[in-house]
Design goal:
Elements: H1 3-22, E1 25-26, E2 38-45, H2 49-68, E3 72-78, H3 94-100, E4 110-115, E5 118-124, H4 128-140
Parallel strand pairs: 2-3
Antiparallel strand pairs: 1-5, 2-4, 4-5
Amino acid sequence: MSKAVLAGFVVFFGAYHVYSQSQPLELKEGPEALRHGATLVYFGANDCPACRSFTSRYMAGFINQTDRMNVRFVVREEHRLYDIGKPGMFSDFEPVYKAARTRMSNGVPAFVYIKDGKIVDTSVGSWQPVLRTAQKQAASN
């Protein structure tokens, strides 16, 4: 195979990956309430230092912002980081976390913005990108 053809494949599949990640991902499973309206989900663990930092320093302001945008805010935490990845993690939101992981690295704190049953944006470690997406969508409605 020539270098030009190989380079073409690399560009095509790279562009396809970027495109597919930018398209909303339909949730196949999860709570029925996520099928309608906007929801921002926080996934964390009680023994996670970054999660504790978010909950103690930023969560109150985060809740105020989501309330002003008419976006539901849901908290799902495990007791230990060790429990993340085990069957039954995050109870009824396990399918949501698993679907979101196809678009983000594994870990917490994780933030998932869902609109009308579709995952629109995800982030691990930083809540700002997902909140900005929610703000942009709220402003356009």
